[in-house]
């Protein structure tokens, strides 16, 4: 699509595709991210149902949560604990012993996401 990806332009391409593929009469459904141009395109192309991608919505919420000062501070503390445990064999053994006593699964010394490390 060489023209700008505005909602109106996208809607026009979607309408043409629906007509070309003879889908319009079959109650078409579309799944998109949360971009405003995609929302406009879905509305203007008249889909029976427009579903915004749950994974994208969840990721946006997580990204916003990571910007909250209290969350960032907590993650900083977790990073320091993980890094300390990685560098100190004594601390690592103490952590594993506490996990055993509390009947918790043994941590592998990594944060849940490389993006958080």
Mind explaining what this structure looks like?
The protein has 117 residues and is mainly α. The protein folds into 2 domains: 7-58, no CATH class; 70-116, no CATH class. 58% of the residues lie in helices and 7% in strands. The chain has a two-stranded parallel sheet with strand order 1-2. Helix 1 (7-20) crosses helix 2 (36-44) and helix 4 (69-87) crosses helix 5 (89-101). The longest helix is centred in the middle third of the chain and has 19 residues, at 69-87. The two termini are 39 Å apart. The model has no long low-confidence stretch (mean pLDDT 87). InterPro entries: RNaseH-like_sf (IPR012337), ZnF_BED_domain_contain (IPR052035).
Q: What sort of overall outline do the alpha carbons produce when their principal axes are compared? A: elongated
Q: What is the strand content?
A: 5-15%
Radius of gyration: 24 Å
List the uncertain runs.
none
Order of strands, widest sheet = 1-2
In total, the number of strands is 2
The helix count comes to: 5
End-to-end CA span:
39 Å
Determine the mean pLDDT.
87
How many strands, what sense, and barrel or not for the largest sheet?
2 strands, parallel
In the residues, how many domains can be counted?
Answer: 2
Give me the strand/helix succession. Answer: HEHEHHH
SSE-based structural type: mainly alpha
């Amino acid at each position: 699509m060489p023209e700008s990806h505005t909602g109106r332009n996208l809607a026009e391409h979607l309408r043409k595709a629906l007509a070309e593929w003879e889908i319009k009469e079959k109650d078409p459904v579309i799944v998109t991210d949360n971009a405003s141009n995609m929302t406009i395109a879905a509305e203007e192309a008249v889909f029976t149902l427009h579903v915004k991608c749950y994974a994208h919505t969840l990721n946006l919420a997580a990204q916003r949560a990571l910007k909250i000062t209290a969350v960032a501070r907590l993650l900083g503390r977790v990073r320091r604990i993980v890094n300390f445990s990685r560098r100190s064999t004594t601390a690592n053994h103490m952590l594993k012993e506490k996990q055993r006593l509390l009947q918790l699964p043994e941590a592998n010394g990594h944060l849940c996401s490389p993006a958080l490390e």
